[in-house]
Each structure stands twice: as structure tokens, then as C-alpha cells.
Design a protein that fits this description.
9 helices; binds uridine-diphosphate-N-acetylglucosamine; binds calcium ion; UDP N-Acetylglucosamine Acyltransferase, domain 1; Spore Coat Polysaccharide Biosynthesis Protein SpsA, Chain A
């Protein structure tokens, strides 16, 4: 396919009224990326170098989200799908040959579907190739009307269809291949005298049929091909389907998934072989999971990198990096720019933000480490807090290699703890501690022999009176 020049356009200018949303329909996300981007990526993967996206309602937002890997044509007034397709005329002025047209609300289309369509179109030498599917419940869709020989003669929209036509369950998928010149010759001649007062792209079929042009049709058994998302329930169903496909892709490439109904993985997530994804896990954005990792149960990881052999158990990780064979959780929170080294440990109820925890260091329990560097093999005792914020500015804490910070220490930044230094438990550290030193930042303990016994006796005697 690559060698032949194919053009393609995606209609995404409509308002998407049935979504009941301020967001343009195409921007509603499915498995991490906008619906229209799924279609656009699939089209690109099938060999269309620069798909043209027809935008209108919320067009700037779509352009911003999809970026400059595509061409855009504006449809300022949404006068129907036929009018929308016409907007690509200038961009395709020099194109001779086939042009694929898809809708921005059919996110389950795969590159192979475009390839098959293109193939069918070419081998038939068609002026138009349509795609259809047989649905048990065809309501809402345009119906394919065929003559007694089974040739398609026209497509009738549900709203314009007679009772008899509505009984037809072969529906228009809204995925076509046209001869480019034929399409742009016919589009301006369409009429909008129909139930919706719109120029319907499917009406091109009837014109070609009457002209005696060659029509081809591809009938898909796979109903998923046809999923058009018009409302939020269809959005949910489409996402569920795509989610299942993504899970399947990872499973067959060597990832163990437990309780697939409870796992969500976005389309751009990568996972290495022999990783185990436990129930309740959600992997989003551009997350990358190394091989042999144990993720979950109940972990949520967004835009993060987890190195080979690491475990992230029941934890929340956002825009962080974790090295190899590290142990995170249960119940850890890695926030943006947390960078956890190889063999390091971040235990329960520990929050790390914008901090490097170097190789082999341990922050095992109930700590907040923010804007800090913890060097190799340092041990941060339970309940240690970096006081990184003075209400105006953030300050850094540095903890040297092999340092031992006793439990419940408060490190008031900016402050530096030297290598191998020891901080006594319960200290409030406000001054730098040199290498190999010990620091006690707490009141000295006072012990009164026999005091407790005397106090109890006094209390008991008072009670008898
Ligand atoms: C369309 C088809 C119908 C088919 C169905 C399959 C038409 C007239 N009908 O109906 O035969 O069975 O898809 O899902 O084509 N759009 C624009 N500009 C407009 C109008 C629409 O860009 O002026 C875009 C929409 O953003 C959408 C796509 O075209 O992405 C399809 O429009 P939509 O209103 O969803 O058409 P359907 O009623 O689903
Ligand atoms: Ca639709």
C-alpha cells in the first residue's frame, strides 16, 4: 500500500449534540487518546501520509490536541457530511486517485480495515466503495438499499426511511473510498431536501449509480468495525472494546493479566515480557513498564517509567521514574519528578515529590520526601518529613550516602545531612550535619525514679476520701 498514493479525510466538524458535552465529540478520549486520533492514527498506519481532518465545532481544540502530523480543513457551518467532505477540495486539488473518507466518531477502525477497503476499491476499479455491516438492531444508522440483483442503489438515513426501508438491517458504516475527481464533481450537486436539511455524503452513491459508475461494497461481519459513537453510552462501550483489545495485545505478547475486567491500560502504554499486572490496576498516558515487574493489585500509574523487575503494589504513581528491582508500596504516592533508583525501597504511606532516591536507599514508612536528594543506601526512618516549603519558597534537602535518619525526624530545608551521618530519632534538624557526624535535635530526656509509683499512690489515697 505504501507505494501507491492514497489520500484520506476524517469528518470531525460536527457538534456531537447527543454527547451532551462542551467538548467537541472527537476529543472525547478512549483509552487515553481522543476518539478522532484513533481514526487518524489508523489511517496513517494504513499508508495515508497526511490525513485531512475536517474540523469545525471546537476545531482549534482538535488541532491543538492532534498536532501538526495532519492537515486540517475548516467547515465553518455544519451543513452535513457531504458538505464537510467538500471542504477538503482545495487540499486535494492535485490528488488523482482514491480518497478514503471516514468519520471521526468510529474509533475502533483498524489499519487493516482501511487497507482492505482500498484493496476492494482498486480491484473493482470502482468510483465509490462503501462499507456496510449487518446489525441486529440497525436503528439510527443509514440503510443500504439494494436492487433485485443485490446492487446498492442508494443509502437512506434512518430519519428519511420508510417503514420497509427501516426493516433493512444492512447499515452504512460511514467508511468509504472514492475516486477523488468523481467525489468533488458530485458533492456540489447534492441537495439538502431531506429530514435533517443537510447535504448527505451517502447521497453520492445514488448519483454514481444513476451515471452508471462502478460501485463496490465491502460487508463487514465484525460489528466492532461499525461502532459509531454518538452518545456517552456508545463511548463507554467502544472504550470497553478497545480496552479488551489492548489487554489481549499485551497478554499474547507475554504479559500476565489477572482479572481482566478490572484492568485498564491506555493505548500508548508499553509493558515488558513476564510482567504481571494484578487486579484493579490502571496504567495511563505514556507509561512504560519493564519486564518482570509486578504491578498492583490496585496501582495507578500515569506517564511514568518503571524499570525491569520492580514491584509497584497498591500505589499511585504520576510522572515518575522508577529504576530496576525497586519496591514501591503498598500505599506509596510518587508525584511528578520522583526518581527512584535501582533496588531502592519506598514503603507504605510514603509520598515522594521532585526527589531523587538513589540506588539502594530506603524510605520505608510514613514519610514525606519533597525537593530532596537521598544518596545511595541511605536509610530514612519512619515518619521522617522534609520541610521543603516555608510558605513562600521551596527548599532542597540533601541526605548523604549511607546516612541514617532516625524515625520521626524533621529536616528543615535548606539543609544537608552528610554521608554516613546519624540523625537521632525525633530530631528537628535545622543546620547542616557534616559527614560521619551524629546530630541530636531534641530535648534531653529526664527520668524520675519512683515517680510513677508515688503518683499512683497519691491518686488512690485521694479517691478513698
Ligand atoms: C452517518 C451516516 C449514516 C451512517 C452513520 C454511521 C450521513 C448523512 N449519515 O450518520 O449513513 O449509518 O454515520 O455511523 O453521513 N460531520 C461533519 N460535518 C457535518 C456533519 C457531520 O464533520 O456537517 C461529521 C461528524 O462530526 C461525525 C461524522 O461527520 O464525525 C458523522 O456525522 P454524524 O452526525 O455522527 O452522522 P450519523 O448520524 O452518525
Ligand atoms: Ca455518527
Amino acid at each position: 500500500m505504501q507505494s501507491l498514493s492514497i489520500a484520506g479525510m476524517i469528518l470531525a466538524a460536527g457538534k456531537g449534540t447527543r454527547m451532551k458535552s462542551d467538548l467537541p465529540k472527537g476529543l472525547h478520549r478512549i483509552c487515553g487518546i481522543p476518539m478522532v486520533e484513533h481514526v487518524a492514527r489508523a489511517m496513517k498506519a494504513a499508508g495515508v501520509q497526511r490525513p485531512i481532518i475536517i474540523i469545525g465545532h471546537g476545531g482549534e481544540l482538535i488541532q491543538e490536541a492532534l498536532g501538526d502530523g495532519y492537515d486540517y480543513a475548516w467547515q465553518h457551518e455544519q451543513l452535513g457530511t457531504g458538505h464537510a467532505a467538500l471542504m477538503a477540495k482545495e487540499l486535494l486539488a492535485d490528488h488523482h486517485g482514491p480518497v478514503i473518507v471516514a468519520a471521526g466518531d468510529t474509533p475502533l477502525l483498524q489499519p487493516t480495515i482501511f487497507a482492505e477497503l482500498f484493496e476492494a476499491h482498486n480491484s473493482a476499479g470502482a468510483a465509490m466503495t462503501l462499507s456496510s455491516s449487518i446489525l441486529p438492531d440497525p436503528s439510527g444508522y443509514g440503510r443500504i438499499i439494494r436492487d433485485s440483483e443485490g446492487k446498492p442503489t442508494r443509502i437512506v438515513e434512518h430519519k428519511d426511511a420508510s417503514e420497509a426501508e427501516r426493516a433493512v438491517n444492512e447499515i452504512n458504516v460511514a467508511l468509504y473510498c472514492f475516486d477523488c475527481e468523481t467525489l468533488f464533481r458530485i458533492l456540489p450537486t447534492l441537495s439538502n431536501s431531506n429530514a435533517q436539511g443537510e447535504y448527505y455524503l451517502p447521497d453520492v452513491l445514488e448519483v454514481i449509480q444513476k451515471e452508471g459508475g462502478v460501485l463496490a461494497a465491502k460487508v463487514y461481519e465484525d460489528q466492532d468495525v461499525t461502532v459509531g459513537v454518538n452518545d456517552r453510552w456508545q463511548l463507554a462501550l467502544a472504550e470497553n472494546e478497545l480496552r479488551t483489545r489492548i489487554l489481549q495485545r499485551h497478554a499474547v505478547s507475554g504479559v500476565t493479566l489477572r482479572n481482566i475486567d478490572s484492568i485498564s491500560i491506555d493505548v500508548d502504554v508499553t509493558i515488558g515480557g513476564d510482567a504481571v499486572i494484578e487486579p484493579g490496576t490502571i496504567l495511563t498516558g505514556k507509561t512504560s513498564i519493564g519486564s518482570g515487574c509486578q504491578i498492583g493489585p490496585y496501582s495507578r500509574i500515569h506517564n511514568s517509567v518503571i524499570g525491569d523487575g520492580s514491584a509497584v503494589v497498591s500505589s499511585y504513581v504520576d510522572s515518575a521514574i522508577v529504576g530496576q528491582n525497586a519496591a514501591i508500596g503498598p500505599f506509596a504516592h510518587l508525584r511528578p519528578r520522583a526518581n527512584i533508583g535501582d533496588q531502592a525501597k519506598v514503603g507504605n504511606f510514603v509520598e515522594i515529590k521532585n526527589a531523587q532516591i538513589h540506588e539502594g536507599a530506603k524510605v520505608s514508612h510514613l514519610s514525606y520526601i519533597g525537593d530532596a536528594t537521598v544518596h545511595e543506601a541511605a536509610n530514612i526512618g519512619a515518619g521522617t518529613i522534609t520541610c521543603n516549603y516555608d510558605g513562600f519558597n521551596k527548599h532542597r534537602t540533601e541526605i548523604g550516602e549511607n546516612a541514617f535518619v532516625g524515625s520521626h525526624s524533621t529536616l528543615v530545608a535548606p539543609v544537608k545531612i552528610g554521608a554516613r551521618a546519624i540523625i537521632a530519632a525525633g530530631s528537628v534538624i535545622t543546620h547542616d550535619v557534616p559527614d560521619d557526624a551524629a546530630a541530636f535535635g531534641r530535648a534531653r530526656q529526664e527520668t524520675k525514679e519512683g515517680w510513677a509509683d508515688r503518683w499512683r499512690k497519691i491518686k488512690k489515697a485521694a479517691g478513698k476520701q
